[in-house]
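Weekly sync, protein design subgroup
Attendees: M.S., D.O., the rotation student, P.L. (late)

Item 1: inverse folding check
M.S. brought a backbone from last month's batch and wanted to see whether the design step gives back something sensible before we order anything. D.O. pointed out we never logged the input encoding, so this time it goes straight into the notes. Structure tokens as presented (350 positions):
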């Protein structure tokens, strides 16, 4: 039921909140048959949510977000008052990946505020179970979370969606303090000196979650006269992805489309490479663009910063920050989406 205000809310101090989160992390790192059953149900309702991908998302949260020492290091950067004036923060969850909005919810809880959650119809079951677990660790934690079909009576908003839905969010939520996220994509910069192991790790950045996430690499920049054979061979190590029907259907459809339209492309049986200036590629596709000097790519990254979520490259290749290959889907607590500090936003709410 909706609470009228927060007068009857049972509050936890920061250390108690962190203890609940650490317990959740410890639980998720162990065996939980009921969680596995929830994953089966999620997969039944959304075939993109394979058991493997759900397990990957849960383990990334447990190891990178819910580690006690990492949480203390992360929050040491902020001044969090002992007695918080509790605000209600509406969170509009995306559904492209399993538990993709968990970091926002974690931030709201760590800041001492209440989350009013609009679940995606593509991801309805995992998060409620995690919230139930938190309530079992400390029943007061339940006062900090509420799911709702319709969002009302809130103080601030965090909403994630497409460029089209962002326009709706701006119109609907614009009068409230807000963080509204649009489409972004991951990119990778190669120079031709990558090892086979590095190229296979890049495959994780491309293929994990079927490439549906904003942290997936959807475009690569390569030097002119780049030899694609080693890359295609390395990416072929991930060929089991085509055993998934929905991915295979997208691969076959796009493959046929390129042939019918007589477009130039390269393929290795599990991904299609096309030369394209767009950062966003189709499912089962990867865009590439040539460069003559690395400085060109650096300038392009700065120019299109609003479209880019992350950059993957060999350590030391670029002058600006980048991730090693294979790490794009393992963000740390301080790796804020779109570069917007969610904790600072929450702690500064009027």
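Designed sequence read out in the meeting:
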């Amino acid at each position: 039921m909706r609470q009228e205000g927060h007068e009857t809310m049972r509050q936890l101090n920061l250390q108690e909140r962190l203890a609940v989160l650490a317990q959740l992390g410890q639980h998720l790192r162990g065996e939980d048959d009921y969680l596995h059953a929830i994953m089966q149900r999620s997969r039944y309702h959304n075939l993109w949510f394979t058991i493997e991908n759900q397990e990957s998302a849960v383990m990334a949260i447990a190891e990178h977000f819910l580690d006690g020492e990492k949480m203390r290091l992360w929050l040491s950067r902020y001044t969090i008052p002992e007695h918080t004036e509790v605000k209600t923060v509406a969170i509009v969850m995306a559904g492209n990946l399993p538990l993709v909005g968990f970091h926002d919810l974690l931030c709201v809880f760590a800041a001492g505020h209440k989350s009013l959650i609009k679940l995606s119809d593509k991801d309805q079951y995992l998060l409620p179970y995690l919230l139930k677990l938190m309530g079992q660790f400390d029943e007061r934690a339940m006062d900090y979370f509420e799911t709702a079909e319709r969002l009302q009576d809130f103080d601030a908003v965090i909403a994630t969606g497409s460029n089209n839905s962002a326009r709706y969010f701006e119109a609907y939520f614009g009068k409230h303090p807000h963080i509204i996220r649009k489409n972004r994509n991951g990119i990778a910069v190669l120079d031709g000196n990558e090892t086979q192991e590095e190229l296979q790790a890049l495959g994780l950045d491309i293929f994990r979650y079927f490439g549906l996430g904003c942290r997936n690499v959807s475009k690569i920049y390569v030097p002119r006269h780049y030899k694609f054979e080693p890359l295609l061979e390395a990416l072929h190590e991930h060929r089991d992805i085509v055993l998934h029907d929905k991915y295979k259907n997208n691969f076959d459809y796009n493959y046929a489309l390129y042939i019918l339209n007589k477009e130039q492309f390269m393929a290795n049986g599990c991904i299609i490479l096309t030369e394209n200036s767009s950062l966003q590629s189709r499912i089962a596709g990867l865009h590439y663009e040539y460069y003559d000097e690395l400085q060109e790519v650096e300038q392009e990254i700065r120019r299109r910063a609003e479209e880019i979520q992350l950059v993957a490259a060999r350590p030391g290749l670029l002058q600006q920050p980048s991730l090693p290959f294979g790490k794009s889907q393992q963000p740390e607590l301080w790796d804020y989406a779109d570069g917007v500090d969610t904790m600072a936003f929450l702690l500064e709410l009027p």
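Discussion: The chain has twelve helices and eleven strands. Residues 14-182 form a domain with the Aldehyde Dehydrogenase; Chain A, domain 1 fold (CATH 3.40.605.10).
Action: P.L. to compare against the previous round before Friday.
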